Amino acid sequence: MNTTFNLADIQGNILRGYRRDFVRHLILEVTDKVTARRFLAAAVDGSSTDVPAITRDVTWKVRPPFCFNIGITFEGLRALGTPSQHLNTFPTEFKHGMTKRAIKIGDFGKSAPENWPAPFDQPDRVHLIASIHADDEAHLDQIEAQVAKAFTVLGVRNGRNLPDGKVFFGYVDGISQPRFKHVIDPDMKDVDEPMDPLGTALLGYPTKQEGVLYRVPTPHELGFNGSFNAFRVLEQDAAAFEAYLDAAASTLMDHPKKHLLANPDRLDLIGKDLDMHGALREVVAAQMCGRWRNGVPYELSPDAQFPETEVSPTNFDYTHASRCPAGSHLRRGNPRGGPIVQRIANYTRRLVRRGMSYGPDFDPRNPDSRERGLLGSFIGANIAAQFEAVMCDWINLGLQDPNITGANDPLLGANTPETSWFDMTLSDGDSIRLYGFPRLIFTRGGAYTFLPSLAAIKYLSELTD
């Protein structure tokens, strides 16, 4: 049994990001398992000109023209012929699939699976999600055509990087990602994040909790070096977000302590040519997220989006006296070493986040209601202990801090205007409570997938039943 860490056995989209301009996710069904297995064999071998090679986690001397990776659902493993005794060793939440776990992760109302468009309205047919990253759409088309010869393409989701690395809400995204021991990532060389153990993202390695290892599905060659992904199609209501900032800023204009949110004599620190109302809009956006929209952490620079001295975008922590609200999106999803109720949970729910935007451009000066959002992958070694725990306990219940329990994440949470609230912090230690948050992000599809190692893909290709 080989338990040696070998980067070349690991799919390349797990421990390091690709930083390409475009992504295309192909939602696939296995309709001929013999043909599908033959494709997987060739994808691992990498010598065929008719089948894209699985991209491994290696340091490239020459940047490849595209990257290709696959995730397989529980039904996909079954469709490929995985024996039942091995299927039964996978975690319960993965067996259930995302649709059956919907309430736990906040997918109800408009976000409920019964409202998801095709092909996610037929989860039993979603067997693989193949992801192609490239800097031009020609390579996306080429690889899709090759994949379509071995699988039925049920649907396609296209994503792209927006200018300046932003998302449709206007925030710079993708700043904070885990760093892993034994992995040298040139794109993370100046990042001050702490090192995470390999078991955060890979099966078969130690985790942050001493003595705790997540169960590795059997046989060893199938489970070892694998990971899990919660793939999500997340619609972002940018028009509603900008409208809420307008409404909140108008409310704050009448508050006697508004000067503690934005210094009327130095509004230039928040944004060029802003009046008080415009500055308050940016403060609300910054406190909701935990970062200013240009990426500067609110914790390190609570009074200025454009501080006069440089601050690190990643090297910070939280205390009881933090100006960054406990209910902010950033602090909820990654409390770092800060004070939370379950201190043992600090850093244990860390997720690898990969994502690109989809949909038409958005102009906040001329908002429209066309669908746009994020194609997100939330990768970890255990869906329940990481992704679902974050979504349920921290994002939608606020169990990490009694001061926010009962309030949802202001950006990602399953909010309703009638019950939602958020406490903004002030420099004098006081707070201002905002009400009436609409739901800003809606789930439009998704699936739980297993990201197998190269050895596991080879194992699946050699099944014979």
UniProtKB/TrEMBL annotation:
User: From the Swiss-Prot or TrEMBL record, what is one GO molecular function term?
Assistant: peroxidase activity
Check the record and name the Pfam families matching this protein.
DyP_N (PF21105)
Q: Which cofactor does it need?
A: heme b
Give the superkingdom in one word: Bacteria
Record has Metal-binding as a keyword: yes
Q: Which InterPro entries does this entry report, sorted A to Z?
A: Dimeric_a/b-barrel, DyP_N, Dyp_peroxidase
The protein's name is: Peroxidase
